[in-house]
What does this fold into?
Amino acid sequence: MPPDEEEGVAASTKSFQERVFSIPNSASAHFELGVQQWIRGDKGQEMREKAVEHLMAAAKLDPQDAAVFRYLGHYYSAIEPQPALKCYQRAVALNPDDSEAGEAYCSLLDDGGKESLVLAVCQEATEKSAKAFWAFRQLGFFKAHQKKWSEAIQNLQHAIRGLPTCADSWEVLQPWVLHINEWECSLLHLRLAFYLVPSLSFVI
It folds into this structure.
């Protein structure tokens, strides 16, 4: 972190510490301080531990804040999977649009060999919110793996509306994009794909 930016973060941290001291029962004050300390966590584990103390306090004061549980999930994911899974589960239940928490949750489940749970989590998220683009993306991959192309295409097209620069979504769509009957539509998709993700390499 550049010196000027580090000084700014340190000043913000001090300001949030004063706010917590003046209103100790404020969930937002604990959360904001916790996030600032989390940002400074690259300076050492001690700062990260301080961040978690305030994030835990924020979670107790406001158990409906999805972002708090996302950060706690990030913390526990490096230590122990089970608490991390519970935190991510809570975050996604509160806010199914949270792609960061959703993708981290699915990744942990997948690492544990719980593919059926990944599918269930994504299905539930898409039913709750049309903006759960990460979940539509995951469902698209599942359907493509099962060679259920019509369902895969439908989910991936929806995911791309919210996450247009995800190269892997375009790559899974490649066979359809290149071989649909309407050439003008196919060319439009290719141009859009290359514009959004210049690193793509389609094979025709």
